[in-house]
Amino acid sequence: MRSRALTTFAALAGTLVLAGCGGGEPAKAPAADIAAAPEFSGTLSILTKFAGEPLSSYFEDVAAEYQRMHPGVKVELIQETDQSIKDKTKTLTASDALPDIYFTWTGNWAENFVRGGRAADLTKVIGPDTPWGKTFGKAALSAFAYDGKYYGIPLYNNGKFMGYNKAAFEAAGLKVPTSFEELLASCAPLREAGYEPITFGNKDGWPALHYLQQLFAYTVPSATLQADFSPKTATLDHPGYVTALKQFKTLVDQCTDTREGTNGVLYSSAQEKFLNGKAAMYYQEILEFANVTDERELKPENFGIFPLPVPQGAAGDPKAIEGAPEGYLINARSPRVALAVDFMKFATGAENAKTLSAAPYGQPSTVIGAVTAETSGKAVFEGIEMVNQASQLAIWLDTVTVPEVADAWLAGGEALVSGGSTPEKVLESVRQASASAK
Amino acid sequence: MPVRAIVRRTLGLAWVVPALVLVGVFVYLPLAQNLGFSTLEWDIYSGSQEFVGLDNYRRLLDDPVFWSSFGDNLLYAVISIVFQVFGALVLAALVESVRSERWRRSLRAIYFLPSAISLTVAGLLFYFIYEPNLGPLNHLLRAVGLEQFTQAWLGQESTAMYAIIAMSQWQGFGYSVLLFAVAIQRIPSEIYGAAAIDGVGPIRRFVHVTLPLVREMTGLMAIVTISGAFQVFNEVMVMTGGGPNNSTQVLGTWLYRSGFVRNNFGYAAAIATVLFVITLGVAMAQLWVTRRRRVEW
């Protein structure tokens, strides 16, 4: 360790200060009319969540084509990963330097930008009755609607499913489980057949929340669950929470090889184990289905999916599926909102939507008709069909509620996995976080 | 004052102005601004900033994660003192007692090598060493029949902080050894010669000759090590991000999490101020020690 007191502190403080520059400005009205004819000149900046292979080339290709069509426009891409985009977006927000178009999740994440006046109201151009709006699935559009206004451009849909290795199930003499109890019971025979029943990596904390949110949707009535997401109305006293937390802990202890050490495993390491054919199941997003290819041990023909099975006697909604579309907002303070709208219309056009849904991207577009068994692959098509038929989508727990509560769930999920806390104590810590966030 | 002297002095000042401006803008201005932010409730989305006085500091007192983070920094400091000050001093004395110059040089290089690796890279490297399924540490334990000691080193609250500290010792140890080796080399060989004539053995020679004569460096290293222990950030972020269940949070990472994850930027600024006060205190002690403990011969 070297002496670096002042400089390190200055770096940390500087980060905060950088975030603080310009932060004192009150929310401003949109800088330009979103429905105006775009002026095809200048630089259009876009913050995407498509960094890394194979996704990064999608926006690169779309941008190159758009620039070819409009030589006066330069598209500047800032591509981030799922993890890094969170910090990047917040730093840019605090320093009042958001790009013209930026990625967003649904729920509280997007709501913060709407509330802060940083997302342009796109109702006039993307509302469900507009020509552009009609090209999207209604549920996807509604996921970004607040107080009857439409702010987001949904790019692709997503949902969480248990992926399974058909060959492993066959070797263990098993069928797809129809209840959570059957899922737990399947773990012993799968282990005897030489497979880790469910591979799971929780180093980043959020993978546990994905299990928990789906189980909460099953065990807690919808109205209660929705009320509990907002600290103002939350009571978090339904017994279904503790039931779900216990079910999750049982699954980790009985069905993973890493058990209480699962917090030390990367999500991607668990994914690799499944793709290498060493694990029988892996809870994953539709966006990950494209990783199953002929080059891997797990072949596409042996890959199947099913929703996390519903526990018996659950008091919630058995037809809910965890997931949410992901999309883009347009910076309300951008002087190029009309150009930004035009670019996103191009990016979500029929051809680009099909390209996005097909290999190697495998991101199921929210544009109607873009996802078919032929263009997107069987598993992605099946997943999207199930998402479309779900009674409701349970939005990711770490984005649906306020950050303090989400953080308490993250820490609680890790504590539950490691055995450092009990379901009752985890719920109490979340209650406290919710109370202090009121 | 003659005109030439005034011109010379003015020119001299002109040379340091750019550096002063840079330090002012990039070091002292952020410090002052951070102090201001720590008195605000700040919504980064709407941009609204409400003055809350010392509320953020009062919240610190009731925040169990802040105190556990502080405790982790202290633990870091204590273990680092043991290994990077006393352990490194003993090893440096052993290395310097090797007769062959070639071996001495080789050993110094071997111990110093980990310090040439960036903390982020070392953190990633050790993340894979500790990985419960594929990591070589658990494989090694199994290979020597110690399977009962295999762990998810970074995945369990009881072992995660120690695993990170161990990596940090590995990374920083060689640097301390090198500094102590330099200090030992500065001790005149006549003193050791006299001790040998008096029949002093190697342990007594270390205790009564080496230790007092490297006192200045020991004090300095202790302070630098404590200061460094309160600025830990990279290794924790890379290896655990502060988890599981906040068990590896240190003040630096809790500051980051409070701001960039929990959106409490005013509160994060308050943590930064506390961190600054601690490191400033240690830095002042460092200055005091370097003035007071100089040994002349």
Automatic annotation (TrEMBL), chain A:
InterPro entries: Bact_solute-bd_prot1 (IPR050490), SBP (IPR006059)
Sorted UniProt keywords: Signal, Transport
Record field: transmembrane: none
Signal peptide limits: 1-19
Origin superkingdom: Bacteria
Keyword Transport tagged: yes
Protein family per UniProt: Belongs to the bacterial solute-binding protein 1 family.
Protein name: Sugar ABC transporter substrate-binding protein
Automatic annotation (TrEMBL), chain B:
Protein name (database record): ABC transporter permease
This protein's UniProt keywords: Cell membrane, Membrane, Transmembrane, Transmembrane helix, Transport
Stretches that traverse the bilayer: 12-31, 74-95, 107-130, 160-184, 213-233, 265-289
A Pfam family hit: BPD_transp_1
Similarity comment text for this entry: Belongs to the binding-protein-dependent transport system permease family.
InterPro entries registered for this protein in UniProt: ABC_transporter_permease, MetI-like, MetI-like_sf
Biological process, per Gene Ontology: transmembrane transport
Keyword field contains Cell inner membrane: no
Membrane topology listed for this record: Multi-pass membrane protein
Superkingdom, natural source: Bacteria
Record's subcellular location: Cell membrane
Claim: Secreted is one of the keywords in the record: no
Domain ABC transmembrane type-1 positions: 70-286
